[in-house]
Structure formats: structure tokens, C-alpha cells
Amino acid sequence: MIRAIVTDIEGTTSDIRFVHQVLFPFARKHLEPWLTRHQHEALIAHSLDDLRQELGQPQASQAELITALYAFMDQDRKSPALKALQGMIWRDGYLNGDFTGDLYADVPPALRAWQQRDIILCVYSSGSVAAQKLLFGYSDAGDLTGLFSHWFDTHVGGKREVTSYRNIQQQLGLPPQELLFLSDIHQELDAARSAGWHTLQLVRDQPDTGSTHRQVASFAEINPELLPI
């Protein structure tokens, strides 16, 4: 019996193009002027200090940090400091109405139905927890944050690492056979399955021929009560 569902975001609940064509360009465009305005605020200063530690350059100037952040963006590096700063920049975009959180139409009704069946819902994404909550809080379908009980980012580990799913399982306090992970990336699903989880792969466009996981095209095809498969 599945008691908790943990879902990825990009390519799973949300079109990957929203992240790459809306969120990432917005953060890149506003990064330098935004940091100039907010650099002395405690939360931003803390993230910049985290970035200095990540770079191994404790005396790095703001100009050097900005150069590093642009380089991390180009590399799509899963930098905790970058993710935190991006999330804060996106928050301004959501609050100002520059965009809303993109969700596939099949996602909100499925989430609501699962919650009504007392299934614990969680998010696990490489984006920061703050960014996750913004996407679901300012989504096309309204504020959905109340549907979720737990939020996980790379502070629990990388999404292709088995230990990450063991860490999540320990925090949820449930046996792995009662957990289901949803993602569009089969390497992430491989790690979850190695940790004893059930897995389903979302293939929104075309099947993944390199995957050994059961594949579905939408959340509407998922019935947790039919698992284990």
C-alpha cells in the first residue's frame, strides 16, 4: 500500500520549458541589479557567504561572485547558493505577477484526489524548497501548497544518489515499500528503486527507451491503490 507520494517538478508536474524559458532567463536578467539592491540583507548576505565557501574563496568580491553565478547558470550547476538566490529573485517575479507557476492540467486534480485518500504528498526537486513553494503557491491553479506535507531539495542529497531517498524515507518515518517516487528522469528513479521505493516515470512527450520503470503519460493514469506493480 502506498502511503506517501514524492514528486519531482521539472518535466513531471511542470513543463520543462517553463523552467528553462521563463524562470532561468528571469533570474539571469535580474541577478546583478537585484543583488546590488539586496546584498546587505541578512538572508542574501548569508547565501553569498555560502557561495564563497562553495568556491573556496572566502574573500571573493561581489563582482567575482556574480561572475561565478553566471558560470553556474551556464553549467546548470546544482549549487545550493545559486538555487537559494534564484528562488529569492523568482519570488519577486511571482509577487509582481510577471508569471505564475506552470503545472500540467492533470496534476492539481490528481494531487487533490490523493490527499483526500490520506496519501502523504511531498516534493523533491533540485530547486530550493523556497522555489518549490513559490511554484505551487502561485500556480496556474492557485495556491496548492496546503496539499503537501514535506518539501525536499538537494540538502538531503543529489537526486541520483540512493542515500538521498533513504534520507527522505527516514524523515517520513515510513518503510520504503510504502513510498512512490514520480520523476521524468530514469536515473533518479533508479536511485529511488535501489532504496526500495516504488517508482513511476512520467513521459510527457515520448517513451524513454532506456528506462526499465513503468511509464505513464499523465498523473491521471496513476492509481496508487494498484501498487505494488
From TrEMBL:
Cofactor binding description: Binds 1 Mg(2+) ion per subunit.
Catalytic activities: 5-methylsulfanyl-2,3-dioxopentyl phosphate + H2O = 1,2-dihydroxy-5-(methylsulfanyl)pent-1-en-3-one + phosphate
GO molecular-function term, one example from the UniProt record: magnesium ion binding
InterPro entries (UniProt xref): Enolase-ppase_E1, HAD-like_sf, HAD-SF_hydro_IA, HAD_sf
GO annotation terms (biological process): L-methionine salvage from methylthioadenosine
CDD domains reported for this sequence: HAD_EP (cd01629)
Cofactor: Mg(2+)
Keyword Amino-acid biosynthesis: yes
Pathway stated in the Swiss-Prot or TrEMBL entry: Amino-acid biosynthesis; L-methionine biosynthesis via salvage pathway; L-methionine from S-methyl-5-thio-alpha-D-ribose 1-phosphate: step 3/6; Amino-acid biosynthesis; L-methionine biosynthesis via salvage pathway; L-methionine from S-methyl-5-thio-alpha-D-ribose 1-phosphate: step 4/6
UniProt-listed Pfam families: Hydrolase (PF00702)
E.C. number(s) listed in UniProt: 3.1.3.77
Functional description taken from the UniProt entry: Bifunctional enzyme that catalyzes the enolization of 2,3-diketo-5-methylthiopentyl-1-phosphate (DK-MTP-1-P) into the intermediate 2-hydroxy-3-keto-5-methylthiopentenyl-1-phosphate (HK-MTPenyl-1-P), which is then dephosphorylated to form the acireductone 1,2-dihydroxy-3-keto-5-methylthiopentene (DHK-MTPene).
NCBIfam families: enolase-ppase (TIGR01691), HAD-SF-IA-v1 (TIGR01549), HAD-SF-IA-v3 (TIGR01509)
Subunit structure: Monomer.
The protein's name in its UniProt record: Enolase-phosphatase E1
